[in-house]
Amino acid sequence: MIKIKEYLDPPKILVLGFATIIMIGAILLTLPIATEDGIGLLFLDALFTATSATCVTGLVVVDTGDTFSIFGELVILTLIQVGGLGFMTFATFLFLLLGKKISLKERLLLKEAFNNIHLAGIVKLVKRILIFTALIESIGGILLSIRFSIDMPIGKAIYYGFFHAISNFNNAGFDLMGEYRSLTPYVDDPIVVLTVCTMITLGGLGFIVMNEIYEYRETRRLSIHTKVVLFTTLILTVGSTILIFLFEYGNDNTLGPLSFFGKFLGALFHGVTPRTAGSNTLPIADLTHSTLFLTILLMFIGAGPGSTAGGIKITTFAVLMATFWSQIKGKEDVVLFKRRIVIETILKAFTVAISGLIIVIIVTLLLSITDKGQHFIMYLFEAASAFGTVGLSMGLTPELSPIGRIIIILTMFAGRLGPLTLGFAITKRRTSEAFHHPKGKIMIG
Question: InterPro entries in the record, alphabetically (predicted)?
Answer without folding.
Answer: Cat_transpt, TrkH
